[in-house]
Structure formats: C-alpha cells, structure tokens
C-alpha cells in the first residue's frame, strides 16, 4: 500500500455539474442524466488513480455539493474550490494546500475525464517521468491529461487551449508511452466512443449501456 504520509499526490479538479462537459450533452441525456454521466466518469478516473502504484493520495477540488458528497462517501478528500476562477486557479489552490501541510514530496494534476484509465498505465507514466516536471498530452496531442511537478517544486499548471504546447514550452518533459487510457480524455461523444473501445470503468459503463 502506498505511503499516505509522503509521496505523489494527484489533484483532480472538477467543475460544478451544471457547467461540466457541455459537449457531452446528449451522450446520456440532459439534466440529471448528464450530471450522472459526468459524476461516473470522474469516479472511474479517481478510483483508477488511487490504485496506481506511486500515488500516495488523490484530492478532488470542487465546489459542487453533489460531487463533494459523492467523493467523501468514497473516502476521497475534497477541497472546496474557493477561488472559483477556473481550472488553473483550482489546481494552484490545491497545490498550495498540500504544500502547506508538508505531506507531499511531489504534486500532480490529473484531468477528471479519463473513464478508461488503467492504474498500470498511470503508474508507468509516473515512473517514466522520474523526478522531472512532466506532462502527458491527450490523444489529439493538443491538451494535457496529466501534469507532474518536479519533486519538491510547484505545479505551475497551464491548462487551457493548447496546453500541451504551453507545458512543453515551460520546460516540462513530454510523456509518450503505451498508455492509451491515460491519453483518452472525454469531451465529446466521439471521445466517449474511443474510451469505450479501450474499456470503460464500471461507473461510466453503467451510464452509457
């Protein structure tokens, strides 16, 4: 079992459900059905990440009460997104909170939309990063699914359009191994189909079956 007092902690930021994954509307219906799908995708992502070798802990950052209750029931720590100023602000907030505690020797950011994520593939990417600031681009090559700070260094997230280039320009090492599930983030129905071809986690599979 991973040491819970030191090591790599992954921060997973999630928008409020009424704002999250608007391009997935229709994949499982609207309203409550859409919120359930977004929640299921996030649950499969976090569950897989918690099982990956080399991950000491996963912390969700969100201001959504339903997500907060759901993850707390799973034993996942949830930090309120008090900046409420977007993805990078949420990640910087989580980074600051963890660094203040002094329990994490390294901090990373993981996107919440990886429903096919395999723990072994995440572990392999972490191992390939070594101690370097590193990132894994999404399957399109433009976005970022995983960002790892260098050991002891700040996260300094640069998510947004063209984040892969932004992280590369910041000096981060590009991680390009055989870990398709780590690169398969889900923004559209086509992305969800690609994730389904890899094998969805159980929560997502129940929502799209």
TrEMBL record:
Residue ranges spanning the membrane: these are none
Q: Which residues form the MobA-like NTP transferase domain?
A: 43-151
Looking up SUPFAM superfamilies in the UniProt record yields: Nucleotide-diphospho-sugar transferases
Transferase listed as a keyword: yes
GTP-binding as UniProt keyword: yes
InterPro entries, from UniProt?
A: CofC, MobA-like_NTP_Trfase, Nucleotide-diphossugar_trans
Keywords from the named record: GTP-binding, Nucleotide-binding, Nucleotidyltransferase, Transferase
GO biological process: any one?
F420-0 metabolic process
Q: What class of enzyme is it?
A: transferase
* Catalyzed reactions: phosphoenolpyruvate + GTP + H(+) = enolpyruvoyl-2-diphospho-5'-guanosine + diphosphate
Q: What is its EC number?
A: 2.7.7.105
Q: Which parts of the sequence bind phosphoenolpyruvate?
A: 144, 160, 163
Gene Ontology terms, MF aspect: GTP binding; phospholactate guanylyltransferase activity
Family note: Belongs to the CofC family.
Role noted for this protein: Guanylyltransferase that catalyzes the activation of phosphoenolpyruvate (PEP) as enolpyruvoyl-2-diphospho-5'-guanosine, via the condensation of PEP with GTP. It is involved in the biosynthesis of coenzyme F420, a hydride carrier cofactor.
Q: What is this protein called?
A: Phosphoenolpyruvate guanylyltransferase
Lineage of origin: Bacteria, Bacillati, Actinomycetota, Actinomycetes, Pseudonocardiales
Gene encoding it? fbiD
